[in-house]
Specification:
alpha/beta, TIM Barrel, eight-stranded parallel beta barrel, 11 helices, 9 strands, globular, Luciferase family oxidoreductase, group 1, Bact_Lucif_Oxidored, oxidoreductase activity, acting on paired donors, with incorporation or reduction of molecular oxygen, CmoO-like, Luciferase-like_sf
Length: about 325
């Protein structure tokens, strides 16, 4: 088929270093290494990993450490966090970690920031941060972090490494809160529509309408994360997608598991209510052959006008996952 024309919109990858059923964390990291190397060779713009804790299928908890590993396996692709959950950490510690990464891998490290704990309440308490911080504490933490990367430091406290590196900050969100904050601070904004579709339009409208130019950006830069699975046939893509559905299903049932193998009999596993709820939660999933996904992604981009698309893909088999990204790249570049 002829290549589609997606213009100059960068295409990036979000990875959770998935631990698959029957495999372990070491396998997950090696799969991420192979995928980031493929992404660099193929022309993807950036590769982000997300902080989660205590989830059986996710190995990206020590996000900065994993970013260092992936950056060491590549030469030019941008590597970053999508994101670091800032309430879990001291801003100074994050400044030192990402200052170290940016020193070792100059002009390649991104620092995406979220305000959720990325885990359950009990695990959040074990992370030893103040669980009673107000919502207003997050903007203050973001500003502290930005100051640590400035030439002057933060109120006489200096991050070494970190000072003067101006590591790029991105605010992540699944609601309108971070959209408004990103607009106020003049920062890039990434919306998690791959699992929180309902507020996408409101968040983008608020971000764009309230955006205040800054030293970082003159105009809004909106990134949108979606799910995508591209296969030879739509039936095969729908089969592969059952792994992601089952993973979300187990999580919502309070029993997170490693990423399950795809199943033909998924309708025997979830209830009608669960099926509709999860399919709504994953509304912005582009699943099918190249022609179907091309058409649907074009429509999505026409409506929402993102500056960048970030793709998550919950496919059990690492080679089929890479093959899906290859088909997506063939459509894109």
């Amino acid at each position: 088929m002829a290549k589609s024309t997606f213009g100059e919109i960068p295409l990036s990858i979000l990875d959770l270093a998935s631990i698959r059923e029957g495999f372990n964390e070491s396998d997950a990291f090696q799969n991420s290494r192979a995928l980031v190397q493929f992404a660099e060779e193929t022309g993807f713009h950036r590769y982000w990993v997300a902080e989660h804790h205590g989830i059986a299928g996710v190995a990206s908890s020590a996000t900065a450490v994993l970013i260092g590993f992936l950056a060491a396996q590549t030469e030019k692709i941008r590597i970053g966090s999508g994101g670091v959950m800032l309430p879990n950490h001291s801003p100074l510690i994050i400044a030192e970690q990402f200052g170290t990464l940016a020193t070792i891998y100059p002009n390649r490290i991104d620092l995406g920031l979220g305000r959720a704990p990325g885990t359950d309440f009990k695990t959040a308490r074990a992370l030893r941060r103040d669980l009673h911080e107000t919502v207003e504490a997050f903007p203050n933490s973001v500003m502290q972090l930005a100051n640590y990367f400035s030439d002057a430091g933060n109120d006489g406290i200096v991050a070494i490494p970190g000072r003067g590196l101006h590591v790029p900050l991105y605010l992540l969100g699944s609601s309108t809160y971070s959209a408004k904050l990103a607009a106020k601070l003049g920062l890039p904004f990434a919306f998690a529509s791959h699992f929180a579709p309902d507020e996408l339009e409101n968040a983008l409208e608020l971000y764009r309408s309230r955006f205040e130019p800054s030293d970082v950006l003159n105009e809004p830069y909106a990134m949108v994360t979606v799910n995508a699975i591209v296969s030879d046939t739509t039936d095969e893509a729908n089969f592969l997608a059952t792994s992601g559905y089952l993973s979300f299903l187990n999580l919502t049932r309070g029993n997170p598991t490693p990423l399950p193998k795809p199943r033909e009999d998924i309708d025997q596993i979830w209830t009608d209510y669960e099926k509709h709820a999860l399919q709504h939660q994953m509304k912005y999933s582009f699943i099918g052959d190249q022609q179907k996904v091309t058409t649907e992604l074009k429509q999505f981009i026409d409506v929402h006008q993102p500056n960048e698309i970030i793709v998550a893909s919950n496919i059990y088999d690492p080679m089929l996952k890479q093959k899906s990204y290859q088909r997506l790249a063939e459509m894109w570049f």
